[in-house]
Amino acid sequence: xxxxxxxxxxxxxxxxxxxxxxxxxxxxxxxxxxxxxxxxxxxxxxxxxxxxxxxxxxxxxxxxxxxxxxxxxxxxxxxxxxxxxxxxxxxxxxxxxxxxxxxxxxxxxxxxxxxxxxxxxxxxxxxxxxxxxxxxxxxxxxxxxxxxxxxxxxxxxxxxxxxxxxxxxxxxxxxxxxxxxxxxxxxxxxxxxxxxxxxxxxxxxxxxxxxxxxxxxxxxxxxxxxxxxxxxxxxxxxxxxxxxxxxxxxxxxxxxxxxxxxxxxxxxxxxxxxxxxxxxxxxxxxxxxxxxxxxxxxxxxxxxxxxxxxxxxxxxxxxxxxxxxxxxxxxxxxxxxxxxxxxxxxxxxxxxxxxxxxxxxxxxxxxxxxxxxxxxxxxxxxxxxxxxxxxxxxxxxxxxxxxxxxxxxxxxxxxxxxxxxxxxxxxxxxxxxx
Amino acid sequence: xxxxxxxxxxxxxxxxxxxxxxxxxxxxxxxxxxxxxxxxxxxxxxxxxxxxxxxxxxxxxxxxxxxxxxxxxxxxxxxxxxxxxxxxxxxxxxxxxxxxxxxxxxxxxxxxxxxxxxxxxxxxxxxxxxxxxxxxxxxxxxxxxxxxxxxxxxxxxxxxxxxxxxxxxxxxxxxxxxxxxxxxxxxxxxxxxxxxxxxxxxxxxxxxxxxxxxxxxxxxxxxxxxxxxxxxxxxxxxxxxxxxxxxxxxxxxxxxxxxxxxxxxxxxxxxxxxxxxxxxxxxxxxxxxxxxxxxxxxxxxxxxxxxxxxxxxxxxxxxxxxxxxxxxxxxxxxxxxxxxxxxxxxxxxxxxxxxxxxxxxxxxxxxxxxxxxxxxxxxxxxxxxxxxxxxxxxxxxxxxxxxxxxxxxxxxxxxxxxxxxxxxxxxxxxxxxx
Lengths: 434, 434
What we know:
2 copies of one chain form a homodimer. The first copy, chain A, is an alpha/beta fold. The first copy, chain A, folds into 2 domains: 158 residues, Aspartate Aminotransferase, domain 1, CATH 3.90.1150.10; 263 residues, Aspartate Aminotransferase, domain 2 (3-Layer(aba) Sandwich). Helix content of chain A is 38%, strand content 17%. Chain A contains 12 helices and 16 strands. Chain A has a 7-stranded mixed sheet, sandwiched between helices. In chain A, strands 11, 12, 13, 15 and 16 form a 5-stranded antiparallel sheet that branches. In chain A, helix 2 packs antiparallel against helix 9, helix 3 packs parallel to helix 9 and helix 4 packs across helix 8. The radius of gyration of chain A is 22 Å and the shape is globular. The interface between A and B is large, with 91 and 91 residues.
């Protein structure tokens, strides 16, 4: 079926304006490792998908899924060893005293549980978050979406939610400030958000934060922000929920984004890469926090904590360990950033190259001095690269950050293919470049 | 590993008080068709699980899952024919003008979308529901849980939610009323709930209802209730959301519970049986309602509307059609109810046998005249039958309804095995029975 036929059917069957990538969308029919194939057999290098974290259609994961599906897949109100083995292995990958898991099917559901857990454990209701975050699509979790622009979008304030300016060094609160001064400015933002909640009688339950601020545009965060914000939150009686839905499972070159950003959260939510595409997500926390939640909320999730989730989740951890993918993310990510920084010399719009591990962000501007965000320019790059066989996307609150986030078995040879195509593209799109 | 070891690990790894069936829980390691097997190889007839609707580990479903998993599983921002084929086939199973689907991973997420859709389409916020319902575990959807007992449970009222007494004929609002009078009493309840919302300035967005009131205890609903309540809701400017998470996919002996209960909802949410255990759920509605939602809510669900969900969902529909499971549910359900009604003569606690298709409820009482609910008695039956190799559970707001809800390929021979074990059990537990 042609793309035009599919587009027309899609509008009719899934609704008008369903999210779709690229000016000229691509039909994908097969995936293998870091490669995706369209209906004509043309291959694309996948530079976007973090969900199939160990690579598309990884045979070890497919086999684990099949073996379990043909054996047993049922809810968790019977005893089953597999789900306990998985909970044990997953919590062991986290820092003490994290010991206990609650499984869900999506990252949204994991953040729902995390918020309900923090509220149950503290007895408080208030949540603070970055002003430009996204943590999920349920009615409650969506209250955290881009809180900073709620008013501009005609939305009423949410009395139990308050935001702070997300910490960044590039387009910062004060360009003349040192990193230490900037850190203090941003920490004041957290204090103010908590005080704002308290001033309307809402005590703090939690700060909910992505450890690498992925949706905000993966900025360079002033050193020490996460650890010191955690102290502030604890002093106010709240807990820190770390949303590892994007950062977790080796993406940043550490197992968890909170290791990369150097702090210790109380509750961790996880999702996307956890099942390599199978819906698996969840929350880990110390036993006492989980018990506070279990006691207050009679939580049950039909499809979650199933033998199938456990088998697939285990297989994903197997592959990450066996193929040394955490180290690979650190190495190849650093290599790509180095090479891309070299291109800043002759690529005026490429104002900043940043990120952690295999999550790279390219700040795209029309004027480096004025730091004018250029989402159209970033979009042009993304679409041109797609024509050349490289699938990327954009990130950031201004939509001007080119987002590079391939499956983890992305090696030096793949990076080199991309780097030459990228260099070719910037030379084509910027006539001023030599 | 012994059950005691598993129980101790479970408390530590999943938290204290995680939901578990039976006084002496059962470890399940394998499933096939309507049979489940424990770690010793002992088999149990599954009389509970509606999720593996076409039977545990059905080879056609397992094969479809494997084939798709080894080919491609990716999000929906690329074009893919499989997900459109599935949306087309699924919506075609529904009454006109339902034409369009939004996929999610769980029933909770489906009800989140349904509520957000009704609110987007009507511009109103108010939701009415049965006083004893359960529709999911997110913060917003959980506001619908047993609204009638919120006050007794020390919960504050939710200004956007109001409930009506669920319509039942057994323990009804007025035992001296005729069915027609009872119908009017219950319809007045719906009118009152809507008026209650309006009196506090909240206009009606939707009534959200399970077409067979499964969690309420699958009562005999006065004929015409759902259709006439739908009229009342429409007149008040609201939409009707039918929650088919439990009733759908042939369970009631029709494809949908709303066919069995004879009304036409505006929005339908689905879940549990949809992927035979793979997390697949979703909402179907007319295009204009989906578009109203898409326009207001930038909804995206990472794991949903995936080629894997589509392949598995398709395979489930294949099997339901090929094995004629809808008709089987109607036939075997009717046969079981007839036989069970015959046992009422010598089983005093068995006050009522009811249900639709392969969803059977047995009202268990300690005194038929006073209609005194006997949850302990029902629990004893359930636990005794488990010892004999039959897995059942309980339902109903009073916890006294024995719940029989096997996978759909449950045939005459399985029904007969159960019926003799059930008769044996009631004779053992009730010394007065001859």
